[in-house]
Write a structure and sequence with these properties.
The protein has about 220 residues and is α+β, with helices and mostly antiparallel strands. The protein has helices at about 1-10, 10-35, 50-55, 60-75, 80-95, 105-120, 130-135; strands spanning about 135-140, 150-155, 160-165, 170-180, 180-185, 195-205, 205-210, 220-225. It contains 7 helices and 8 strands, in the order H-H-H-H-H-H-H-E-E-E-E-E-E-E-E. It has an 8-stranded antiparallel beta barrel. Helix 3 (about 50-55) packs across helix 4 and helix 4 packs antiparallel against helix 5.
């Protein structure tokens, strides 16, 4: 009875339009609110590595990935050496993130990378080097640098350091960290044996450093990529 009166008052065309409109609205709401989504910097439908699939499966990792993409974009836009920035990001992806096999490892990797990017931004990008750009082998070209040849490595959350004197192992199995634009190198067994390099510049594949408390700069050339 009520339906008949409503149709008689408004007309069947109006009722049909309202019904169709409500269906369209419901579809829009389902797309916006009802469908599962994850905030990532890449299309999860095209995820092909185990790390990307893991990121897409956990909302928290997806948020970290999105935050990192934004931080990296801001860093790249404000950098005078975009080539080095891109290489550093690619190294982090291939040598840190893509070595992870668990969600915990990915969370640690993303947190460390985000912290590095944000600290550099907060310091007005005063530090020209990032952890990822240090990874690889270096040879001293000039200056009194403590090491003749050295290599920084990253394996997941571990950071390994080795050095050579006249091509022979010298400082093997050590560790390193980068904090406040200073590279801290620690011997594997001798706690008191450590070296601190203050970074002043990184350009054209050359690292400019001075030992803590020393004003004389040493220049190291990167070997290979």
């Amino acid at each position: 009875m009520l339906h008949t009166k409503v149709v008689a008052f408004f007309g069947e065309g109006f009722i049909w339009s309202v019904w169709r409109g409500s269906q369209a609205m419901a579809a829009c709401l389902w797309l916006l609110l009802g469908s599962p989504a994850n905030a990532t910097s890449f299309d999860c439908a095209k995820a092909h590595t185990s790390q990307e699939k893991l990121i897409c499966s956990e909302a928290g990792l997806g948020v970290l990935d999105d935050q990192l993409a934004l931080a990296y974009k801001q860093r790249l836009e404000g950098s005078a050496d975009k080539v080095s920035e891109k290489r550093a990001q690619m190294r982090w992806l291939t040598e840190v993130r893509d070595k992870c096999v668990s969600a915990d490892c990915l969370r640690s990797a993303y947190a460390a990378r985000l912290s590095a990017l944000k600290s550099q931004a907060a310091a007005g990008s005063s530090c020209p080097v990032q952890e990822a750009s240090l990874v690889g082998a270096w040879v001293r070209r000039s200056g009194p640098g403590f090491f003749e040849e050295m290599a920084f490595g990253v394996d997941g959350t571990q950071r390994g350091f080795d050095s050579w004197l006249h091509h022979r192992p010298e400082f093997s199995g050590g560790s390193w960290t980068l904090k406040d634009c200073t590279i801290y190198i620690q011997h594997a067994t001798e706690v008191q044996l450590s070296v601190a390099f203050k970074v002043s510049d990184l350009r054209n594949g050359q690292l400019y450093v001075a030992e803590d408390g020393d004003k004389e700069v040493s220049i190291y050339k990167k070997v290979g990529k």
